[in-house]
Structures are given as C-alpha cells and as structure tokens.
Specification:
mainly alpha; about 75% helix; about 140 residues
Length: about 140
C-alpha cells in the first residue's frame, strides 16, 4: 500500500475511532456496561468493514482503473447492506445493548464517510501519473516550430 493511501486510511480511521470512543462513553453513562460494549463492537465493525473496502478499492484503482467508479458504488452498497445485516443479526442479542450498537454503527459510518471525503479533498492526487520509464524525446533540431 502506498504511503498516501496509508495516510488517507489513518485520516479516516482515527476520527472514526474517536467517535466510537465518545459513543462508548455516552453509552456507558446512559445504558451501562453493555451499552459501552455495544458501542465498541459497532466501532470495530465499521473500521473493519470500511477499512477492508478502502483497501479493495485502492487495489482496484491500481489494477483496473476503468472499473474504479463502478466498483466504488458496488462496494459502498455492499458495505451498507452488510451493516444492515449486522443490525438484523444482533437485534435481540444479550451480549450488548442493541440500541447503543445500532446508533454507534450508524454514527461511526457517517463519521467514516465524512472523514474519507475530507481526506480525499485534502490529498494532492495526480490525475495522470507520470511515467518515469519514458524519457522526453528531444525535438528534432532541423524542424521549425
């Protein structure tokens, strides 16, 4: 993974983790220990899902740039569907508070998307990558421009 990709991933994951920590504290105060556990699990799920999606999207951009936009749309739709599946599966769990889990899941997903958008807007991304293997050809000295 390139260093600018790692930087973008960190600029996205760190605010999400902070939002998850805040949600865990609020959930612990409002609901108790099970609320904090639900918030922590939700934060880890979001960072894991979205982080894997980010890596997959970056590899797709490198190897199949013509599929980048379609892959991005499909990836985000799949991630949102998987998050809804997690909500449905853990709806009646006793391991943690499902409401704290669901609210944190949605909140940290929104934080991830906002942070990723901000990181992308601040990145200095070349639209055309210079090819260092092709040196500029010198102009023909006999031709007039």
């Amino acid at each position: 993974m390139r260093s600018d990709d790692v930087r973008s991933l960190l600029q996205t994951a760190v605010p999400t983790a902070v939002a998850g920590a805040v949600a865990a504290v609020i959930s612990a105060l409002v609901v108790g220990g099970k609320g904090a556990v639900g918030a922590i699990v939700a934060t880890l799920v979001v960072i894991l899902f979205m982080g894997i999606g980010f890596v997959v999207l970056q590899r797709t951009a490198k190897s199949l740039p013509h599929l980048f936009q379609a892959m991005g749309l499909m990836l985000y739709a799949t991630q949102i569907l998987l998050l809804f599946v997690f909500l449905a599966v853990f709806k009646n769990t006793t391991l943690f508070n499902p409401r704290a889990f669901a609210i944190t899941l949605v909140a940290t997903t929104l934080v991830w998307i906002a942070a990723q958008t901000r990181a992308h807007m601040k990145a200095k991304i070349l639209y055309v990558e210079p090819d260092s293997s092709k040196a500029e050809k010198p102009e023909n000295p006999g031709s007039k421009s």
